[in-house]
Every structure is written in C-alpha cells, then in structure tokens.
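Hey, resending since the last one bounced:
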Amino acid sequence: RVDLLAPLLAPTKAAGLDLSPMLVDAAPGSPRRHLATAERHPAPSPDDAALGALAHGFYAGGGVIRNTQRAVGARLAGAIAARHGDHGFQGSVTFAFTGFAGQSFGAFCLDGMALELTGVANDYVGKAMAGGLIVIRPPAHTPAKAVLVGNTVLYGATGGSLYVAGAAGERFAVRNSGARAVVEGVGDHGCEYMTRGHVVVIGPTGRNFGAGMTGGAAFVLDEDGTFQGHVNHETVKLERPDEADQARIRTLLEEHVEHTGSPRASAILAAWEAYAGRFWVVMGAAALAKVTPLPERRKDFPAAL
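The structure tokens again:
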C-alpha cells in the first residue's frame, strides 16, 4: 500500500535521498489482498511393525556416527509419538553408537528410547527430550576431564535422563524443565533458566551458574571452595545438602556409574563421607519448598542393537 506512504525527510544528509523508486505502485489496479490455501497431507500414524522397520533403518550404518548426522533419534521419536503419544510407548529400544555425533543428538527423545554414544557429541544433545535415556562415554585413551558434549545441552527438556562421563560446554541444562542429568564439568551459564529437574555436576563450573533459574535443583561438587564465586546470587540460593539431598546425589551418581562406568563418580562414591559435605544445593531464590523427590526411571532397556 505505497499509496498510504509519504516521505518525511529531516533537513539532514537524508534530505538528499530520492525515495520515489520505493513509492512506485508496482501493480496499479490489482487486488490489494492475495490469499492462498495449501492442501495438507498429514502423514499416517505408523503401526508397530512400521516402528520396528524404522528403528532398524535408523540404526543403518553399523553404529558409526558422524558429525554430519544431525538430530539422530528425532525421526524415531516422532514416529513413536504419532503412534503412542509422548508417554504411551510401553516398548523399549536401545541403540549404541561410536564416533562424533552432529548437532541435536537425541533431540525429542521419548520414553522407551535409549541412545548410547562412545565418542563426542556436538551442541544441543537431548534438546526438548521428554523421556528416555542418553548415555555418553569417552572414547578409549581420552584424557581425564575431556569435553564430550557441546553447548546448550538439554535445552527445553521436560523429562528423561542424561549421563555424560565427561564435561560439557556452555549453558548446560538451559531451560531444563524436568530432565535428570549427571555431568563432570560445565562451562559458563550452567542451569540457566532452569525450572524443574535434577542436575549433578562433579567437576569445575564456569561463571554465572544458575542465572534465571527458578526451580529444580543442581547439586554441585565444590572441591576447591571457589564455586560460590561462579554463581549468579541474584537468582539462586545455596545450601549444603541435608540427608535427603545426599541420598538424591548418591542415587544419581550410582546411576551414572551404572551407565557410564565413570571412574570419577566411582571414586566419589567410594569416599562418600569425605565428599558429601563438599556439595552445594543450588535452587531458585524464590523456591518455596525443598527439592522435589527424584522421579522413577525405567530400567528395562534391552541390550544395545
């Protein structure tokens, strides 16, 4: 509607501009509104046989994953959701990979899915996962404290479990809204905007931890006494763990060892009395209640395909 526009140029350098080419009516006399409708062809919901075929096709490639393969697991999660909804799948399927996963490994993971990776993953691992299990172990001969996952892990997750036997990049568990996770170090802005869920960090942390965090709980091991200087105190409060908190931490570390074989977590559990008092519980400053109990997790995943 260039007929409704008029140039308004202040007496500055802009006054020398010629705006007339922008005000030409390109189609005088034509209709002013253009409406179009596109016919939609919704995909049919797959039956269980089709799910099985998709699962085996998803695994094609011998289990070796490359960083050009992104959002691995998302198509299978979508097929399961189309058939069973977010939490209605009673079956279980496990896949094991080796190599270097591209972005969004395990995105939208659902109950009944388990993805295991021996290797390294890019950003957005577990993005928006609603359930299931993601396990990441280091390759052989990897140095201790190696970074195994990239930035923005568990972005917007609402459920499920993630165990990383190594460190993560920045913004780990950003907007986490229900997932449980164990990681062995994080970069800046850990647990940013977190609203629910449980996160255990048994390694160093970057600055600005807990910025905008309003719910859930992070249990952070502070071996050198510097963690308080890395926390955003405007939005979170720190407490030492009580007996119930210590039980939650131990449960999550035991699960971590069960899935990853982490030497780091094993050593902490073996000397638990020496480590228990070095954890901090990080909660949103406006939280009205103590940490919620850990939800039950599925343990019936089959051996990896």
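The helical segments are 48-58, 74-84, 243-260, 263-270, 272-275.

Sorry for the duplicate.
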